[in-house]
Task: structure prediction
Amino acid sequence: MENEEYRHRQINPGDREGQQTERGVQALQSLVEQHQKQLQLPDAVSYYDMWVDLLSETRGYVPQSTTEVIQNVSLGLGFLAYNTWGEMGYKGESKQFVFKRRLQREQDDYHGHLVLPYEQGKLLQQAASAIDIAYDPGTPEEVEKRTFSFPDILSPRPVTGTIIESREDKR
Result:
């Protein structure tokens, strides 16, 4: 895959491609709403995989702007589901590893941060609710609620505090 396929860009709703993107977002929102209750998803890993598969299967068959929406929402979903995966045992831990690799590949293209436009944040909210993950995209002005930092997952902050020896350590 060429790196240019993963470039993030701002969408101007007034241009033709921006209008196509808006229609694409509306179509995806409609699909999520219609099938949310029917999906009967087994877990957060499978649901994330469905979004990644959707990205893979539609690339080249839908407008590039729609592909970018799917890519951004699937990436945002990965950020939201990351901690949930950690509680799922081996399957979840494996998905965390794969997601970290995805972030490493896409880090430069996104300049270390995924910043979702408001419409994509609303779509991510709907998508996340399908697997019972609460997400608030905020208002159009609250961009910080739609900003996901790659270093938060790639370079988690070390735990700080005082280590206290147990009695067993002294034996």
User: Anything to note?
Assistant: The longest strand covers residues 113-115.
